[in-house]
Amino acid sequence: MAKTIMIVDDSASMRRVVSIALKGAGYDVLEGADGRDALAKLTGQKVHLIISDVNMPNMDGITFLKSVKQMPAYKFTPVIMLTTESDESKKREGQSAGARAWVVKPFQPERLVDAVQRLCLP
């Protein structure tokens, strides 16, 4: 059975690029247009990993990450932050909120898929 990855990004084209790379590697994909939209879609189903942007309207990625970690069903779900943000203080904030990896855009899809394979829950 395919593992499910959630992509959270306010850019539809970025969600599409990531989705194509993940589907090509055999994953199922859920999408959220921002943190609030993604939280509404986390309804208890198994999600093996979340990839989230940092800078988004309605709810940014760090706030989303903190909210996800409060949800019993997703407390241990690994999160990769995929962002244009390369500021060290932002990275530290993301790590302390529970991010397992920080990938800076532009990124190479195969490197992202490698990170997903390494961090994905069994």
Automatic annotation (TrEMBL):
Signal peptide: none annotated. One of its GO terms (biological process) is phosphorelay signal transduction system. Residues 4-120 form the Response regulatory domain. Pfam families: Response_reg. The keyword Cytoplasm does not apply. The modification 4-aspartylphosphate is found at residue 53. Keywords: Phosphoprotein. InterPro entries: Bact_response_regulator, CheY-like_superfamily, Sig_transdc_resp-reg_receiver. This is Two-component system response regulator. The lineage of its organism: Bacteria, Pseudomonadati, Pseudomonadota, Betaproteobacteria, Burkholderiales.
